[in-house]
Amino acid sequence: QNEDKWDFVLVSDIHEMGSEKEMKRKKFLDELSKKGFTIKKIEDTKLFYGVRAPQHIFWKYQCLLTNPNSRQQNSSAYQDVPVTTRIRVVNFILHNTVTSDLEKLHDLMKKKVFEAAFPLHKKEEIREILKKKWARWRVLFKEQPIEEIRCYFGEKVALYFAWLGWYTYLLIFAALAGLATVAAGATVFSSSQVSKEICDANNTIMCPLCDQNCSFWVLSDTCTYAKVTHMIDNEATVVFAIFMAIWATVFLELWKRERATVAINWDLYGWDEEEEELALQLINNSQHEPRLYQHSYFRSTIVLILALLMIMVLIGIAHALVIYRAVAMALFMQSEVNLLSQHADTIAMLTGAVLHYITIIIMTKVNWHVALFLCDLEKPRTSSQRENNFTVKIFLFQFFTNFSSLIYIAFFLGRINGHPGHYVRIAGHWRLEECHPSGCITDLFIQMAVIMVLKQTISNIMEYLIPLISHQLRKKKKPPKKRSLMLGEEEEAEDPCKRQWLNNYELNEVNIFSLFNEYLEIVIQYSFTTIFVAAFPLAPLLALINNVIEIHMDAIKMMRLRRRMVPRKAKDIGIWLQVLEAIGTLAVIGNGLVIAITSDFIPVQVYKYMYSPCARENHTSMDCSTGYIDNSLSIFHIQDFEPHTKVLPEFKGKQIKECRYRDYRNADDYAYTVQFWHIFAARLAFLILFEHVALCVKLIAAWYIPDVPQKVKNKILTEKHSNLRNELSTAEYSTEV
């Protein structure tokens, strides 16, 4: 027998004769034999069963799924079915064969009758090409062989890599724009008037940052921070945020065009997933009745309520992190260690970010199980429908896991903590943390940087090392070869299949979610790259570096460390496209909010045009933001501190009567000033304007770039025309006869 002709291998433990498991296994294999499958058994430490499907199954498949026009031309000559189709059909039949006990392969695997079922990585020419051109580190910057990936792993995997490659290619432009923004910040804006004023404010005494044993401090202490903040918080950022909104739209529009070209080249336009599934069901069992569509409002309501509860839990976790930071800040401030007490806010922030990363890791596992449970409640009709439902749920949960803490920092931090003499407290004890003295955008920047760097380095290392180590361990498990005679049989020459099957068995198993995980990881990364990009313009650059490595790491995992995936057919990236479009819209809202609310862009503009010396007299020579810092700080009288606040009234040998804090409040009754309401109105006006402009530009870009290229449209048109012409000539010929 030719060793390459086995479609699938089933692996099972060696069970005792007559045991229940052995009976179940025999029943299942008998069912396969009835369908005409050839089965070959090889015994080692496990039992291996090679399975080969009979030819007539594939003939049926071709009859049912080739279009009628091509059928007339070569009705006798059935061309060979591609290997990917072969594996897909066999996989479907294996998983839908029912034994006399009404059990399928899935149930038998749960009961440990079979341990594994997988198609083989074979020594094909195409596999060698992929190993050479794709699954190695040397070809990091070369183009991917998408056509070969499709022939080996099927359309679904090929489309993932085509999409990932396309996204990575377009990230180059976003990364360059981000670098340009940071460079502009470092050169043009580092000498800005605002940071100059902060660095020169040696006499501006600020209110203490905690209640116990905290002294006053001087504003100029935060000079370096102010400079860093102005690198990311300046006019260039606004332009960059609008650019990223357009970039996200253009990326998706161009991908739709790319996908249309791929679909026509791979002859996927006429293909229909539902039809394929029905055809496979009929090939497996000609008496099969289709499962009809059903919809239950009761089920949907329950799923909705449970999903909302889960989201509440995730938001609750973000609250817990807020409380952690407030308490940690208070404890660090009172610490004996100088380093801790001096940099308490930064250390609380950094440890908070690391904790956030740890919660992301843990909650990802929990979200997974919850989303699967909710999917089972819905009882989806087909596997693709199930996958879509699961995708939406897991993405929502992951989004809140990753972003709830960032949303708090961006939009609530420092806005809800009251003012000196009247702070908002957790459990009446701990003060809520404030923004960094040089602005809230720095906090967001730190949090984004920590999470993105940790997520990409640690997750990638784990993603590569875990399969590598487990593969090495599986290889080690092999016992030495025994020369003893097994069950009295003569020792035969070793079967050539045995080595190949064993090697495949030693690889890591793949499951239905292997590809899904890769998608989810990249889509969450895409959210980081677009949603709060105004606060962290380097995000696209980090994503670009990550993706170049990710593509080849995934390739190496699929080719060398994992068993072969069951090739699946698809004509696009499915529901992920809608998810990406939703993220694109969120990105406009998110960046608009970051610039309007988190950054100091608006207060500075309001000051320039309404309160600065320029607004009062025509000073052309002077910088209009002169005096902004002094204007943005309110005055607080020491005697109004809360009774339990212990503050030393002396500072550098001077008695202090008043201190300053960031807010727009009156000095006598601490009510908001008129300027506060001016700025509030300006923030809202900017937000509405920014969102509308960005969304209009997105819509124009979406209209301007057609989803399907002309070439593809014309190809479909001429095909339809020639098909109709052939029909007509056939009809005329038959009437003449």
TrEMBL record:
<feature type="transmembrane region" description="Helical">
    <location>
        <begin position="394"/>
        <end position="413"/>
    </location>
</feature>
<feature type="transmembrane region" description="Helical">
    <location>
        <begin position="301"/>
        <end position="327"/>
    </location>
</feature>
<dbReference type="GO" id="GO:0046983">
    <property type="term" value="F:protein dimerization activity"/>
</dbReference>
<dbReference type="GO" id="GO:0005254">
    <property type="term" value="F:chloride channel activity"/>
</dbReference>
<dbReference type="GO" id="GO:0005886">
    <property type="term" value="C:plasma membrane"/>
</dbReference>
<feature type="transmembrane region" description="Helical">
    <location>
        <begin position="157"/>
        <end position="186"/>
    </location>
</feature>
<dbReference type="Pfam" id="PF04547">
    <property type="entry name" value="Anoctamin"/>
</dbReference>
<feature type="domain" description="Anoctamin transmembrane">
    <location>
        <begin position="149"/>
        <end position="717"/>
    </location>
</feature>
<keyword id="KW-1133">Transmembrane helix</keyword>
<feature type="transmembrane region" description="Helical">
    <location>
        <begin position="523"/>
        <end position="552"/>
    </location>
</feature>
<keyword id="KW-1003">Cell membrane</keyword>
<dbReference type="InterPro" id="IPR049452">
    <property type="entry name" value="Anoctamin_TM"/>
</dbReference>
<keyword id="KW-0812">Transmembrane</keyword>
<feature type="transmembrane region" description="Helical">
    <location>
        <begin position="680"/>
        <end position="705"/>
    </location>
</feature>
<keyword id="KW-0472">Membrane</keyword>
<dbReference type="Pfam" id="PF16178">
    <property type="entry name" value="Anoct_dimer"/>
</dbReference>
<comment type="similarity">
    <text>Belongs to the anoctamin family.</text>
</comment>
<protein>
    <recommendedName>
        <fullName>Anoctamin</fullName>
    </recommendedName>
</protein>
<feature type="transmembrane region" description="Helical">
    <location>
        <begin position="347"/>
        <end position="374"/>
    </location>
</feature>
<feature type="transmembrane region" description="Helical">
    <location>
        <begin position="573"/>
        <end position="597"/>
    </location>
</feature>
<feature type="transmembrane region" description="Helical">
    <location>
        <begin position="236"/>
        <end position="255"/>
    </location>
</feature>
<feature type="domain" description="Anoctamin dimerisation">
    <location>
        <begin position="84"/>
        <end position="146"/>
    </location>
</feature>
<dbReference type="InterPro" id="IPR032394">
    <property type="entry name" value="Anoct_dimer"/>
</dbReference>
<keyword id="KW-0325">Glycoprotein</keyword>
<dbReference type="InterPro" id="IPR007632">
    <property type="entry name" value="Anoctamin"/>
</dbReference>
